């Protein structure tokens, strides 16, 4: 933010200095200004304009009489010989800056060999950078040399494997310490980087997975590394860790806990909440704090609190790689939740320390975008920023063989970057999934460039969470008392039909492969807690039936079904709507509750099996939906959903009321699912129980 000090100066372009002087500081008045560089050379300036601001400041715009040297350190003097460092600000957003300093990221970071280690960072506006080495307790400082295109580098000509290091960066008149944003090996709580090479690590062999022919064949299960294994007494020796997430033994199999339980459901993809370094949990004392992890510090380093030894930089890498391998061996694909829209602490963010302001959305007056409501929004449009995040994604795929990315607040990012990520990741794995939160966030990115649902037609390979489906099916996310179709609001029957057709018939989406259908995720109240309010007079048994009803709508709809861990048994967070930092008590997977609500689990397994066995529920194009999906209704209450794919033909009935209904068919129907248990195996007359779901195959 500007105008916090009485006297400030900023380079906003190659020939533009903006000066802000408080009226409490020499009345904000100066007749002349000049710059002095680090060699005591004077650069004259002209005052182009002077403006009296309403907040008690005078703003000056200066032009320079000599060319600016980027990376030089300049002090601005006024007529009273008062001085302030002139900070590189909006100049880093200019096309000339990009033309002058863009490079291909090939060897930035730490390049280790037994004979030498080369350190390179990109920091065009930095005046000096020092490498602070700690080699087994022996400390050393090495000055990096400035090279072309804003690259700083140095070489240490000896074997320094496992050495710890940070960079001291002199920029905008001050020294700041940071880790290496290009190096995935970090110490506890990201206090230092570690000299190591991914090439030295023996990662597990990749498991060949069968090709996923369409996104609509995916069934996504969102889970937290910590939550799945934080309950005691479930047979996990390494709870809350990467290693514990895939532990299997006699106890986990007998009790159906952890990975053993996930495997029993039949889902195809496990989507993990953030696993890359975040700042809101102490990696050494992991039980003091709880957090989901949407507080990124380092995008390429894995989170140390999930490691069995956060002090060994290799362990978290090896354990996560093993986790992916183990899930693949079980036939489960792995999608990762990436947070590229904001950071935990802007001022100490490694990329910000190296090139202040470059990686964050800001306007010409130095104001920062806050569409994320976190105080900062990452700017993915500058070419070096774009390249950093693209390369980060590609490295993750190549290192760990993951199968998809979910982007948090994707609407803050620009769609051209997301398209490029999708294109290049699919070049590595042709069935790679890319999807995210396509909300239209109020950031500085223009609406036509946002990776939001408004621009879904510009992103052919990218999916979006359907808030349309969520709001229609479960009711208002903001007001717990407002019901959706699944919890009794039959006025939404027509809207529910549109949502079941992946909103393609109403032209909100142009492909079902882009539509992530859900009624519950880590954010907001769970469906059970929502229903406990909007259906508060109903018995536990009825609430269990409603849970199955909503989950059936998700699993049988056209598009991509998404289930939040615990949704399949009525997970509760004790009516807490935002549990992101509220301890294991609120967030853990409660296997005792799972056992109590086992009928919902059984129903979910059956519905998952039906979806996987019947291709009519996973149509791949809008045209297929237009030709093969139709709807009907009974008494404007029961929704009839009919879908067909070649010889596969199914009819589904959804009844959110307390009434019983009947349906007469001229064709013989085989009952595939009936949570009311009132129909024979085959019939021409279908009975739909109160709060019931019936799925039939047409012979």
Q: Strand share of the residues?
A: 25-35%
Instruction: Identify the overall geometry.
Output: elongated
Helix content, binned percent: 10-25%
Kindly, what is the distance between the CA atoms of the first and last residues, rounded to a whole number of angstroms?
68 Å
Major beta sheet, strand line-up: 17-18-19-20-21-22-23-24
The number of helical segments is: 16
Give structural notes.
With 699 residues, the protein is of the alpha/beta class. The chain has 4 domains: 7-88, Immunoglobulin-like; 99-178, Immunoglobulins (Immunoglobulin-like, Sandwich), CATH 2.60.40; 261-301 and 330-588 and 600-617, TIM Barrel, CATH 3.20.20; 630-698, Golgi alpha-mannosidase II (Immunoglobulin-like, Sandwich). It contains 16 helices and 30 strands. The strands form 5 sheets. It has an 8-stranded parallel barrel with strand order 17-18-19-20-21-22-23-24, surrounded by 4 helices. A 7-stranded mixed barrel has the order 1-2-5-4-3-6-7.
What labels would you give this structure?
single chain; 699 residues; alpha/beta; Immunoglobulin-like; TIM Barrel; eight-stranded parallel β-barrel; seven-stranded mixed beta barrel; elongated
């Amino acid at each position: 933010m500007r105008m916090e000090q009485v006297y400030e100066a900023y380079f906003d372009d190659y020939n533009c200095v903006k000066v802000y002087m408080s009226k409490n500081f020499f009345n904000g008045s100066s007749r002349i200004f000049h710059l002095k560089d680090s060699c005591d050379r004077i650069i004259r300036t002209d005052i182009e304009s002077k403006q009296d601001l309403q907040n008690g400041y005078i703003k000056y715009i200066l032009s320079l009489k000599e060319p600016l040297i980027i990376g030089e350190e300049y002090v601005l003097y006024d007529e009273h010989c008062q001085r302030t460092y002139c900070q590189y600000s909006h100049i880093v957003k200019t096309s000339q800056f990009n033309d002058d300093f863009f490079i291909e990221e090939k060897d930035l970071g730490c390049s280790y060999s037994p004979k030498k280690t080369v350190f390179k960072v990109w920091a065009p506006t930095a005046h000096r950078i020092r490498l602070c080495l700690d080699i087994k307790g022996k400390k050393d400082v090495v000055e990096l040399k400035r090279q072309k295109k804003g690259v700083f580098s140095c070489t240490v000509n000896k074997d320094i494997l496992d050495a710890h290091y940070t960079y001291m960066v002199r920029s905008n008149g001050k020294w700041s310490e940071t880790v290496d944003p290009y190096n995935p090996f970090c110490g506890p709580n990201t206090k230092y980087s570690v000299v190591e090479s991914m090439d030295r690590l023996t990662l597990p062999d990749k498991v060949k997975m069968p090709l996923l022919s369409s996104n609509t064949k995916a069934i996504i299960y969102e889970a937290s590394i910590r939550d799945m294994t934080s309950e005691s007494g479930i047979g996990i020796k390494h709870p809350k860790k990467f290693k514990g997430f895939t532990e299997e033994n006699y106890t986990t199999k007998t009790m159906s806990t952890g990975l053993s339980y996930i495997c029993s459901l039949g889902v195809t993809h496990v989507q993990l909440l953030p696993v890359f370094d975040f700042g809101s949990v102490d990696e050494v004392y992991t039980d003091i704090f709880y957090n989901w992890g949407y507080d990124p510090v380092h995008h390429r380093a894995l989170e140390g609190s999930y490691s069995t030894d956060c002090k060994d930089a290799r362990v978290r890498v090896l354990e996560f790689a093993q986790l992916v391998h183990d899930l693949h061996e079980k036939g489960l694909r792995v999608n990762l939740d990436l947070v590229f829209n904001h950071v935990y602490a802007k001022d100490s963010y490694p990329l910000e320390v190296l090139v202040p302001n470059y990686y964050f959305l800001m306007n010409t007056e130095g104001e920062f975008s806050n569409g994320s409501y976190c105080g900062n929004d990452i700017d993915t449009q500058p070419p070096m920023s774009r390249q950093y995040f693209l390369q980060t994604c590609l490295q993750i795929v190549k290192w760990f063989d993951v199968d998809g990315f979910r982007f948090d607040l994707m609407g803050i990012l620009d769609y051209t970057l997301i398209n490029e990520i999708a294109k290049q990741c699919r070049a590595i794995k042709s069935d790679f999934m890319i999807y995210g939160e396509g909300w239209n966030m109020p950031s500085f990115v223009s609406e036509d460039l946002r990776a939001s649902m408004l621009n879904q037609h510009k992103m052919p390979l990218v999916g979006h969470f359907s808030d349309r489906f969520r709001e229609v099916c479960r009711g208002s996310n903001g007001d717990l008392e407002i019901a959706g179709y699944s919890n009794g609001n039959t006025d939404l029957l027509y809207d529910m039909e549109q949502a079941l057709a992946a909103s393609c018939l109403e032209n909100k989406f142009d492909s079902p492969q882009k539509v992530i259908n859900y009624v519950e995720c880590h954010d907001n109240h769970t469906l059970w807690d929502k229903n406990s309010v909007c259906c508060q007079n109903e018995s536990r048994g009825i609430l269990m039936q409603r849970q199955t009803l909503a989950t059936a709508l998700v699993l049988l709809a056209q598009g991509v079904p998404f289930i939040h861990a615990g949704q399949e048994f009525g997970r509760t967070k004790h009516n807490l709507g935002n549990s992101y930092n509220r301890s294991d008590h609120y967030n853990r997977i409660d296997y005792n509750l799972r056992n109590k609500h086992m009928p919902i689990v059984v129903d979910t397994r059956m519905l998952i099996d039906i979806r996987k066995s019947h291709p009519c529920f996973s149509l791949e194009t809008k045209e297929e939906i237009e030709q093969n999906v139709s709807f009907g209704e009974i008494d404007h209450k029961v929704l009839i959903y009919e879908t067909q794919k070649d010889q596969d033909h199914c009819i589904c009935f959804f009844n959110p009321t307390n009434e019983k209904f009947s349906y007469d068919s001229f064709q013989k129907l085989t009952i595939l699912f009936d949570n009311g248990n009132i129909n024979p195996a085959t019939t021409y007359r279908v009975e739909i129980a109160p709060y019931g779901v019936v799925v039939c195959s047409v012979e």
